[in-house]
Design brief:
The chain is mostly helical and 93 residues long. It folds into two domains: 36 residues, no CATH class; 32 residues, no CATH class. The longest helix has 21 residues. The protein is elongated.
Length: 93
């Protein structure tokens, strides 16, 4: 989107007040922006951010029930395993 708008990261940073290193981290997938930050970046590129609630999307209640059936220790183990998996994936990027 930034490139389509013909902007460098520095120019977008100046327009939006979002630091250039933050923009670089978002573009590289190392950081997830908050909605407000995303809205500023989109606006700075001359676009409009619109959020739409989609029916049928959201919580997987069956998955939630399976997780709640686990003990706190089992949930913690799964959470740590998932965090470790994400770290490995991030390092490969």
């Amino acid at each position: 989107m930034r490139r389509t708008a013909g902007l460098s990261q520095r120019q977008l940073a100046q327009r939006t007040g979002v630091p250039q290193p933050t923009i670089a981290a978002i573009e590289a997938g190392r950081r997830d922006p908050r909605v407000g930050t995303l809205a500023r970046l989109v606006d700075g590129c001359g676009w409009t951010l619109t959020m739409v609630r989609l029916k049928g999307k959201g919580i997987d209640r069956a998955q939630l029930r399976r997780l709640l059936a686990l003990t706190p220790e089992e949930r913690l183990r799964r959470g740590v395993a998932e965090a470790n998996r994400r770290m490995i994936v991030d390092r490969r990027r």
